[in-house]
Amino acid sequence: MAQETNKITWIASFPRSGNTWVRALITAYSNNGEVEINSIMQTGDKNPEYYDGIIQKPIQDWSTSDQALIKPAAMMRMLEDAGGNLMLKTHDCNIDLSGVAQIPHDISRAAIYIIRDPRDIALSFKNHYNTKTNEIAVDKLLDNKFVTRFPNKGLFVPQLSWNIHVASWMRNLPYPVYALRYEDLLSNPFEVLSEIIKFLDLDYDENLVKKSIDACAFDKLKKQETKSGFREAVGQEFFHKGQAQRWKTELEPELQSRIVKACEKEMKIAGYI
User: Fold this and answer.
1) Rounded to the nearest 5°, which phi and psi values hold at 101?
2) Which DSSP symbol is given to 44?
3) How far is CA 140 from its chain centroid?
């Protein structure tokens, strides 16, 4: 990866795809293999401090267009404050909104993009958004205008549908993207984390990789959340099940088919079908 300065490395994903777990692993690796869930790298592209005041209108009165137009300026503020390169979490779709790139190319150094089987995300959505049925969760997953908003009329998160999100990050981009599947991180964490560390140009230490994986075992993070809470959680427990292929037994066949029909191209690219 090019040694550029004053640029952003994105940790990007559609929601409920493993973004927090990847950030936990990177945090542990940078902290001698130790992690406390409320000390996981929290810096994201939706810190209102850096958006506030760019336009003469309070955030709670903003439209999605207002936010889209000023996001690059907010990201420049964050870079200036950091005084160098920055690693940021994002759930934003990598598209233009109101004619403005929401992941500005000129200040992007690289990206790690986490992909998860959309059939399992649907089940995770049901818990995370507390939907009454799997069908409602699938509606959100496939909504090509899906935008969430932080509590108390905070900033918007333009996620759009799973397939649009994946296509936006998996296309040819003018900076390197390391794409990884959540399922591969589950089945072979040593290999995947080793590749992440090398992609980020961090000093590689095999023992530290192993120690970081152990510290970030799902049951350990879940236990920490039960004991101390987790500040990224919104209402429901955050570390719910974290398993792969639950969809085979828990998602209705007609909903499985609906997801595959809508996301066939991107699921083939990711190797899910």
Assistant:
1) -65, 125
2) B
3) 16
CA 183 to chain centre: 15
pLDDT tens-place string over residues 111-120: 999 999 999 9
Question: Is residue 115 helix, strand or coil?
Answer: strand
Q: What is the pLDDT of residues 201-255, one digit of tens each?
A: 999 999 999 999 999 988 888 787 766 666 554 555 555 566 789 999 999 999 9
Burial of 271 (0-12, 13-18, 19+ CB in 10 A): exposed
Cβ-contact 13, 114 below 8 angstroms: yes
**CB neighbours of 90 closer than 8 A, spacing ≥ 6?**
10, 11, 12, 44, 45, 103
Q: Where are the domains of the chain?
A: 8-117+143-228
Between the alpha carbon of residue 216 and those of residues 70, 185, 200, 208, the distances in Å are 36, 12, 19, 12
Q: How far apart are CA 224 and CA 117, in angstroms?
A: 26
Q: How many C-beta atoms lie closer than 10 Å to residue 193's C-beta?
A: 23
Q: State the pTM of this model.
A: 0.92
Tokens of 104: 């500005």
The type of residue at 62 is: W
Calculate the dihedral angle through the C-alpha atoms of 119, 124, 129, 135, rounding to the nearest 10 degrees. Answer: 30
Q: Does residue 42 register a pLDDT over 80?
A: no
Closest C-alpha among 185, 205, 244 to residue 24: 185
Query: Which of 51, 38, 232, 253 has the alpha carbon at shortest distance from 153?
Result: 51
The CATH classification number of 8-117+143-228 equals 3.40.50.300
Q: Tell me, what amino acid is at 46? A: K
